[in-house]
Amino acid sequence: MSRLGLLANPWAALAMRLYLGGVFVYASIYKINFAAEFAETVASYQIVPELLVNPMAVVLPWLELVAGLLLVAGLRVKAAALVINFLLAVFSLAIAVTLFRDIPIGCGCFSTLDPAMGWTALLRDLVWLGMGTYVYAYDRKFQLERNFLVRVKES
Amino acid sequence: MRITPLRTLQEAGYLLLLTLALGLAANALRPDGLPLFKVFQKDPGAPPYATLSPLAAADLLRKGQALFVDAREPKYFALAHVPGARNITPEQAKAGAADDLPRDKTLVIYCDSLACGRSHSLAGILLEKDYTVAVMQDGIEGWIMTRGPLEVSQ
Q: Exposure string (b/e) for B60-89, b if CB count within 10 Å is 16 or more?
């Protein structure tokens, strides 16, 4: 906490952590419930090879859910934030490619019925990516494993 | 305990493995699980209407036996569509916009590309209204690839 004192505010990081975790948990629920629909969304981006569409549609929402829960709970925050940042980077790239290719599809970020996406979807993901990076770097308040678990002395 | 970047990466890797197992297990357990190692298919089981290649559809149009129906949003329809095509979205068809179509022709329905579902949902609706329906599966994209003529609104 020296020069970075104002910039690296742990409370801001906490707020972003909870928000981002919530967003990911929320986003995962629909996709887990309607895996087949999500598979169509994945396919509509025309990026993932056909053979990998179903495995991706099955696994990706769970990754969102677990990483989101870990963020909210404050367990292994850095790892969870890393995963979320990775996902956001992939999503942003996919959205950008789709916009450049001018494929008129919905984002499918939260449900299948999203309206056709535009640059705002990309902007939103990039803002979240910024938040995720901030969380990765500066979060340290109310982390379950740091503050509320009994510490075992390392030898 | 210091959390080094390497350690974080390692934990992220474990997280990945964990969710891989979770996702696969959930998919295996649920009754409507997806077939994992099959090529993704839009419509399992053949649809109850014909699917046409762009060339076959163009042939039908030349013989005067086809009317093209564009299932995309009007703004995309305005940019380019098959000459003479009608623009009816699935929503409009549900609201009754498709009740005056010719019954002596095959309605060739298309949307954006192979991956779009609108043509299929529109085909389902029109089929219920007892029209003769076919879907041009590759959409306007396939039409353009085979150098089909285009028309622009305005």
A: bbeeeebbbbbbbbeebbeeebbeebbbbb
Give how far the C-alpha of residue B143 lies from the chain's centroid of Cα atoms, to the nearest Å: 14
Q: Residue A102 is encoded by which pair of tokens?
A: 């001018």
Asked if B26 reaches chain A (Cβ–Cβ under 8 Å), the answer is yes
Q: Does B74 touch chain A (CB under 8 A)?
A: no
Closest-CA residue to B70 (of B13, B151, B154): B151
Q: Which of A43, A79, A154 sits opposite B12 (nearest CB)?
A: A79
Q: Which residue of A has its CA nearest to B8?
A: A79
- Residue A15 to chain B, least CA–CA distance (Å): 21
Nearest to B26 among A60, A62, A76 (CB): A62
Q: Is the ipTM of this complex over 0.90?
A: no
Contact B72 A76 (CB under 8 A): no
Domain boundaries, chain A: 10-147
pLDDT in tens, chain A (155 residues): 455 556 788 888 899 999 999 999 999 998 998 888 888 889 888 888 888 898 999 999 999 999 999 999 988 899 999 999 999 999 999 999 988 887 778 888 887 666 678 888 899 999 999 999 999 988 888 887 776 666 666 65
Query: φ and ψ at B135, to 5 degrees?
Result: -115, 130
Q: Of all helices (H) and strands (E), which one includes residue A4?
A: none
**B107: which strand partners?**
B67, B133
Contact A111, A30 (CB under 8 A): yes
